[in-house]
Specification:
The chain is α+β, with helices and mostly antiparallel strands. Helix content is 38%, strand content 26%.
């Protein structure tokens, strides 16, 4: 069916179709993305966040063709920092006063992984 439709195109369009057939979709290629997660307290400590974050990375690199994925967390949130490290991200530093909370400004720790690091894991 698809071949039949292609055969009806002018030769120039058929060539163009061939050239682009196996190309990745362009929009997000090489872009950067952020992941985040929240797990119900009843389920904490069972690996759910790690599993979810791993799946998000898989989708980010394999389905959306991103180059870099990052996550941030409150510096006091040791469990979230642990999750970001467990999925292979590297600590990149502390961003000052990124979030305003009830008792003032809060810093955020930045973690990230690049596509080649994820593929080599
Ligand atoms: C942070 C959060 C996502 C973790 O979810 P989870 O399903 O319990 O996480 P996992 O079980 O996959 O892994 C948690 C890891 O942190 C460790 N951990 C838990 N509490 C910790 C603490 N106080 N200090 C250090 N490490 C801690 C666990 O031991 C585990 O590591 P391990 O596998 O090496 O033993 C969950 O607590 C949550 O939803 N919190 C509220 C929302 C939030 O903070 N989201 C993150 C913002 S990006």
């Amino acid at each position: 069916m698809a071949q039949q439709a292609a055969d009806q195109l002018p030769a120039r369009d058929r060539r163009r179709g061939r050239r682009h057939r196996h190309r990745r979709p362009a929009p997000a290629r090489g872009a950067s993305g952020e992941i985040g997660y929240g797990i119900h307290p009843d389920r904490w400590g069972r690996g759910a966040a790690t599993a979810a974050a791993r799946e998000l990375l898989r989708q980010a690199f394999e389905e959306h063709y991103l180059h870099r994925v990052y996550g941030t967390c409150d510096p006091r949130n040791s469990a979230s920092a642990r999750v970001l490290l467990k999925i292979g991200m590297a600590y990149e530093g502390r961003m000052r006063e990124t979030v305003r909370i009830r008792d003032g400004w809060r810093d955020s720790d930045l973690y990230a992984i690049l596509e080649q690091e994820w593929r080599a894991r």
